[in-house]
Structure of OsmC family peroxiredoxin:
Amino acid sequence: MAGEMKTTLNGLDVMAATQTIEAIKADKSLARFQFRAKNTWVGGGENRSTIRDFYGAGLEDDSRKVAFEFTNGEPPVLLGNNEGGNPVEYLLHALAGCVTTTFVLHAMARGIEIRSLSTELEGDMDLRGLLGLDDSVSPGYEEIRIRMHVDAACSDEELEDLMRYAEAHSPVCNTVCRPVPVKLSRA
Amino acid sequence: MAGEMKTTLNGLDVMAATQTIEAIKADKSLARFQFRAKNTWVGGGENRSTIRDFYGAGLEDDSRKVAFEFTNGEPPVLLGNNEGGNPVEYLLHALAGCVTTTFVLHAMARGIEIRSLSTELEGDMDLRGLLGLDDSVSPGYEEIRIRMHVDAACSDEELEDLMRYAEAHSPVCNTVCRPVPVKLSRA
């Protein structure tokens, strides 16, 4: 009976999380991950990624029987036909998801139950950067704001501390906040 | 007859692109864009974004009749059930798409026909950062590599120059390469 018990908090398997953390503490090479994507241009502002395999926890993952497929597109004002979300919108989706998962994971580690959580994101950009019309204008987001609605079984101070912790430890948030080298080369 | 002609290069409407650029040159406020996402936590490492409206070219866009919906998930080794790509994978998709679209756009501006284009991306990360096991380990990507396969009607030197230009002017690439402030607050 005990062997079948599974304790979850915030939808995460507490025992599995603890085992993962202990395994990484014992062998830090298990913490090395490599994520991958393949993308093919369709035409104009439309292109498609397939994502399936990755390396992590010491081996090549084979848990996905079918690849995920995501389509980038552009709205008419950006010369497309809304074939999909556009790349800077997918970045917001990635950021929202990563801050959320990091928040929920560390809430679990602290024994805090999250009842509900949602976020709203806004990012500002000046298209003159992308178009190369003004070298003093950066092509990327100038700033991204995330407003979090959260209901949890803890004090406001604990929530605030969790938010600061998630902000500092989210891989996507960190990739955006810090300068991360991107190396583009011809195959 | 002439009024119905539409010249496209690389799947992009050349006249529309020129008009957009001229309009922005005449009124730089038209270059201001704000992109948005709303995300709701489902449970564990699963959460879902809806993306629809944005502000740009001086007005609120209403071209999308239905919102795009994207699901973040995690693989079993990261305590999930592959409910969707994970956030750091979506980031690679965003980056691939943005570099591709920027490349294709500026190829058009230079009159260069792109016949085919695909990319392969890899990003390395050490999970001890996310888990908070070692403060000296950054939670984000350490480096992201993009290998581009491209067939175009131009010289290798022109291709190399286009690659460097796309790298420098892609909004997502720029958001990753530079430090961009992310402000997380409670709603």
In short: Chain B has two domains: 26-85, 86-177.
